[in-house]
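Example 9 (inverse folding). The structure is encoded as follows.
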């Protein structure tokens, strides 16, 4: 056997005894870990953009904030902002979505379950108005921009609103079970009426007809009391 042939045979024997690492089957967990890492990275980027937008909206106002400034504050490329929000209005929907969701959850977690429907509704809306009062100028920009919002974060807010309507409908349904509200009333239809009164009160504040405090009491309080009379069994 020639020297070349002997070297080739030796390489073949070595390869058979010790397969290359690239030939080993990949770990079945590897793709899942990679996907999980990418998903977490995306969530972290979204959080940085959301926090940067909120900080600038509160510091400079909605009109004074640009998407470029948000990208710089979040330390991401300008194009990355548009991966998470369609435009500046959609950035506003992003930051307000999480604040509204937290306020609604807190309101229902502390709900006075043994009270009649009207005090329960006032409790829920007091929590929301308190949230708006933390940054009233940003909140006014949100109330103005929310109707018709169609970006991805606007769609998430619409979904949150529908979920909120169903939670209000649940309160009406519970009141029906207590014999407090007419059993023939559609709870979801009643929830839509209640939400319309709430939004009308917000618009009275936005339009300058009432302060935020007055928009809650007496404007919304009196409107809900009148609606409640119509719901009574």
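The amino acid assigned to each position is listed next.
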């Amino acid at each position: 056997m020639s020297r070349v042939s002997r070297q080739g045979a030796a390489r073949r024997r070595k390869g058979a005894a010790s397969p290359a690492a690239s030939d080993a089957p990949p770990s079945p967990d590897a793709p899942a870990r990679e996907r999980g890492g990418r998903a977490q990275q995306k969530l972290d980027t979204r959080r940085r953009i959301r926090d940067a937008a909120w900080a600038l909206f509160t510091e400079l106002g909605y009109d004074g904030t640009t998407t470029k400034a948000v990208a710089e504050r979040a330390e991401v490329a300008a194009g990355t902002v548009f991966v998470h929000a369609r435009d500046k209005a959609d950035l506003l929907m992003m930051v307000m979505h999480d604040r509204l969701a937290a306020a609604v959850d807190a309101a229902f977690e502390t709900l006075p379950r043994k009270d009649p429907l009207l005090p329960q509704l006032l409790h829920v809306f007091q929590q929301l108005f308190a949230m708006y009062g933390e940054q009233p100028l940003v909140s006014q920009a949100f109330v103005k921009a929310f109707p018709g919002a169609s970006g991805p974060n606007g769609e998430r807010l619409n979904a949150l609103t529908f979920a909120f309507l169903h939670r209000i409908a649940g309160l009406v349904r519970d009141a029906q079970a207590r014999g407090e509200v007419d059993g023939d009333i559609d709870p979801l239809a009643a929830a839509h009426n209640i939400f319309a009164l709430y939004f009308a009160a917000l618009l009275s504040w936005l339009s300058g007809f009432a302060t935020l405090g007055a928009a809650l009491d007496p404007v919304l309080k009196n409107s809900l009391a009148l609606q409640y009379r119509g719901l009574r069994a």
